[in-house]
Amino acid sequence: xxxxxxxxxxxxxxxxxxxxxxxxxxxxxxxxxxxxxxxxxxxxxxxxxxxxxxxxxxxxxxxxxxxxxxxxxxxxxxxxxxxxxxxxxxxxxxxxxxxxxxxxxxxxxxxxxxxxxxxxxxxxxxxxxxxxxxxxxxxxxxxxxxxxxxxxxxxxxxxxxxxxxxxxxxxxxxxxxxxxxxxxxxxxxxxxxxxxxxxxxxxxxxxxxxxxxxxxxxxxxxxxxxxxxxxxxxxxxxxxxxxxxxxxxxxxxxxxxxxxxxxxxxxxxxxxxxxxxxxxxxxxxxxxxxxxxxxxxxxxxxxxxxxxxxxxxxxxxxxxxxxxxxxxxxxxxxxxxxxxxxxxxxxxxxxxxxxxxxxxxxxxxxxxxxxxxxxxxxxxxxxxxxxxxxxxxxxxxxxxxxxxxxxxxxxxxxxxxxxxxxxxxxxxxxxxxxxxxxxxxxxxxxxxxxxxxxxxxxxxxxxxxxxxxxxxxxxxxxxxxxxxxxxxxxxxxxxxxxxxxxxxxxxxxxxxxxxxxxxxxxxxxxxxxxxxxxxxxxxxxxxxxxxxxxxxxxxxxxxxxxxxxxxxxxxxxxxxxxxxxxxxxxxxxxxxxxxxxxxxxxxxxxxxxxxxxxxxxxxxxxxxxxxxxxxxxxxxxxxxxxxxxxxxxxxxxxxxxxxxxxxxxxxxxxxxxxxxxxxxxxxxxxxxxxxxxxxxxxxxxxxxxxxxxxxxxxxxxxxxxxxxxxxxxxxxxxxxxxxxxxxxxxxxxxxx
Length: 752
Known about the structure:
Largest sheet: 6 strands, antiparallel
Shape: elongated
Strand content: 25-35%
Helix content: 25-40%
Structural class: alpha+beta
């Protein structure tokens, strides 16, 4: 019996596809299966494709390309339709490509194959998925969607490798995976799954010329499929001895290629036999491409992170250890996205004569610096680095805080002169006062030189806020100068957190010559000082007020823990899960860099009970009457848990009256000192305002329309006790309030 008769008896047709002529030759059975008139026919490629279901046309294109690339058998299940689009039958097509190379590198091919009808089950019948179409195809598409989503979300090489190890392919999941990375002429394993650490020893690092499938894939850029152990042994006898002990039966090695560049090889090994049909190869190829793209993205992301975090790690100082009586902690959190660079920084600087003690331990005088250069880009980071170095230099020369900031402001203003266009008078365009630039409009020489407003907004001079603090660990004395930076926060020994209002000057760089007043504070035993940039308060749609309300409970509740845990808790309050439920009142939830410094004085000398004294001091200068509002706020913060709200209002009113009288009736400044001490519920508040005038206040009887003379009357009505004390260089007026309405115990002097 002839072969043609046997095939006809098996309802199998023969066909031939010529890529040169674009024709398809069908025998009688093949023509019948395609719904064409009986008999051997020659039809165009378009006419033959028209008999396939539209979805299957795309499928057959991919299968043919894969067979041509790998020189393997092409196999597919296709639905045949009539002129009206109704499905007539389902056929299985199998073909072998024959490729002919022509001069000039042109390749022609012919496909010789068979067609055989496939019996489909009736509607509603549950069938097992096959390796070609049906349920397996649908599960394959769902798998590829899930795998693509998981790989796209991976942000590092480690995450990509974890996703690759967890992939479960429908119908033929591998139990062994390995990813090889190409570095120069060497191939090394960067991740594996299904092997013990010692198993991959022979393959961890190998030359590209090695007789190993992964190396061949890198050399040729073509996948290698090994469906049986015999095929592996025949093609790679040199490495088979290392592989046979794994008891695997099929292997697939696929190139990891991105934009024509081979990154390495992905290996999938199977304990069961896999035929590597065109559909299975298609799935593996798609996963390999997604894996390559994910690894490439992760490499770029890691390079960007290293580009930003590497210099950051070099710029961020190591905080001093062994400071007697004090502890320091710090955090830096870059803004999300991009290169994660910005202008926030902190520093700790040993001061002259205070770097070390005679016994070799650190702990002399030192300076803490925290600041924020305008902007969140590479230029802001560059200016931050230059400014940080300048501040270190000025501090190391022994200058006081006000002088350090004045010199730093002059340095930053002079650093940003623009050598661009000539301004007409020979000066460089844009070199001048920064104030006009900040306002958003060019002026003077810059305007005459033709600079546009956008030029100044994008590339104009920057300013920086800064807080510089000199610390004496022995006495707890802090000398502080502030340049437009947020005020520090002090947490007292009994857990009360208060914003400490301090005088300050303009941000650095706004004016070349600026003054920065120095404020002296005393950090008592058990107290903690918090310095921060505005991102700690304003991130997440918060302004300074709402941001402080969010952080204050954290600082008060977690303050008893170690300083490191407190720093983590503060950052978590801003960036942790709870921050999504505590958004601020602002519409835009902007992100900002965060720099945080915490300085704590040991509580060995402080009382641990609730009798610890709280203390605050404020100086209000004649030229700064607006600071009276800050003094009132500090007093209210001091008494935030006072049981009688009316007493708080009374104290605030009396403080305002006392400080105002000093500014109106004398030529000097007013020094306010407030202390609250005793056991909770039985505390005493004492407020004293001192000035340098020797004139004592006198009680007057103001008329109904009088605008003054009621200060002492108010104190007599509202205070539980009050008085005036002459001093050698002036006088002080004081009042006391008792939380329970009677005198409380005297504060312990050792805790003040």
